[in-house]
Amino acid sequence: MTTNRIVIAALSGQSLALSPIAAGDVVHRYDDGISNVTFGPPSSFAEFGDIDMLWGNYFFTEGEAELINQVTFGLGELSADPTVSIWIFDDPDNDADPTNATPVFSTTAIGEDLGFDFNEVSIDPTLVSGGFFVAIGHLAELTGAPDNPDYPSPGRFDPDGRADRSWFFYDSDIPEDDLASSGFVQRMDGPFVPIQGAFAIRAIGTPVPTPATCALVGCGAVWCGRRRRRI
Ligand SMILES: [Ca+2]
Ligand SMILES: [Ca+2]
Questions:
Q1: What is the pLDDT of residue 20?
Q2: Closest CA to 16 of 123, 140, 125
């Protein structure tokens, strides 16, 4: 599914002009376009104050590697500051568990709850291989009176999507360099998840050879040129 709405104003030099999906590009997704459930931290977390959230989907590249060039995502209710962060992690052991994955790209943008429509961000082509994790971060600011604490529910997901590829994290400050050390980590089919599902987060990538393949077939210059753009 595509949308012609451009609703993200990126804050760090990312292009507002979205490229159409090119022939051969891969659209990674688990949602079916109807992501009608949102969630945020439980009010029982109020004693910790504002809570950083990070939620995302774990995908596998088609072939050895891909250059990810666009991320799209649905959102629910946001905090007074609607800034979201967009993260791509590459997982070194490709085991469908992102807690040891390495951040390889991040940027920030202004997010919006568009219902079933998607916020869209074009990014610098970012190389990933095998398993990778695409995540959205947001500060859930505590609202409501002290005796009636509440948080916004920025995470949007599809209860019909597979739940074993979606993960979320809570902490006072998400440790992106070491997700395993987050204060709270759950897969969306975990015991603390009342409604399972798949996050409305998609990634679009272009399959490319890996450096190992390039060493054999002589495309290393192409790969190295692309790689430099993500650093
Ligand atoms: Ca990987
Ligand atoms: Ca892993």
A1: 64
A2: 123
Question: Is residue 29 very low, low, confident or very high in pLDDT (cuts 50, 70, 90)?
Answer: very high
Tell me the per-residue pLDDT of 133-178, one tens digit each, with 9 for 90 and over.
Answer: 999 999 999 998 888 899 999 999 999 999 999 999 999 999 999 9
Ligand nearest to the CA of 100: 2
User: How many angstroms separate the CA atoms of 93 and 83, rounded?
Assistant: 31
Q: Is residue 13 part of a domain?
A: no
9 assigned to some structural domain = no
* Cα-to-centroid distance, 102 and ligand 2 (Å): 9
Is residue 6 a part of any domain in this protein? no
Q: For residue 20, how far is its CA from the centre of ligand 1 (angstroms)? A: 26
Considering the domain boundaries, does residue 11 fall inside one?
no
Give the Cβ contact number of residue 198 at 10 Å: 22
Rounded to the nearest whole angstrom, what is the distance from the C-alpha of residue 89 to the centroid of ligand 1? 8
Measured from the alpha carbon of residue 98, the closest ligand is 2
